[in-house]
Specification:
Blueprint lengths: L1 H13 L2 H8 L3 H15 L4 E4 L2 E4 L1 H19 L4 H5 L3 E6 L4 H15 L4 E6 L2 H9 L5 E5 L9 E16 L7 H7 L1 E5 L4 H12 L5 E6 L2 H9 L4 E5 L11 E5 L6 E9 L6 H12 L1
Parallel strand pairs: 3-4, 3-5, 7-8, 7-9
Antiparallel strand pairs: 1-2, 5-11, 6-9, 6-10, 6-11
Helix pairs in contact: 1-2, 1-3, 1-4, 2-3, 6-11
Length: about 290
Amino acid sequence: MLAELRTLVAVARHRTFAAAGHRIGLTQAAVSGHIRRLEDTLGFPLFERTGRSAVLNEAGWRTVKRAEEILQSVDALAAPEAEETAPGMMRIGAINSAQPTILARALVPFRQRFPRCRIHVAPDLSLHLMDRIETGLLDLAIITRPTFDLPRDLQWTTLVREPYALVVPAGIEGDDWRVLIEEHAFIRYDRGSFAGRHLDRFLRESSVKLREGLEVDDLAGMVAMAANGLGVALVPLSEALLPLPETVRALPVTPEPIYRDIGLVRRAGENWSPAMDLSAELIAAA
């Protein structure tokens, strides 16, 4: 039921089923299915439906408010209750590839400056981390830049641009990424992630014919699968992956390279404590 509640909140925020689906990685039909299941479970309609439009009714808005409270409580389970209310607590979200690199380097001087500040690091997909920033459950987060414009209440700072490359088993000959991607099983970056959506759009616009194989949301896992001969993978050359194992080769995307932007996102227009300001500065420097 949590998935259905998240979908309802997304529809309330983004006004239409289509816009909500684009934001959370679902088709419009899937969003409609979530809403129908939720209405069946609750036993009352949440929307006034006229033709092709659907507008939240009074019961729908009450349910949205309760759903937001429930989801905030569930997300807060990621941190022990005692730490949530403790003074000097900072909550940082980070995608997996940023934790052992950018974030780890930034935390060394931060701990030297604020040794008593307790830090909770929350790993997740960029989409979920951004939502938790919006709802105040995180102070800042390192995420992949989304394919849509950020809400006006969020501030973005680009940290690094990572070029994409086609990772192929070392035994496969050839240097044309397009030919190889069409000849071998494709290990796809999960389209539930911002980077996965970006790549999906790039491949469709480039008219690349894929031999669908696997869909994975883990860069190291994708490289390991290619190394084991399961196919070829289009991945950003993240610092966390380098150096690549000798069992694979990385081919650049030509003639126009594409990139994954990694950045720092936080709520705009807030009065930041010295610890918050320093953490953002150190992350940018790292």
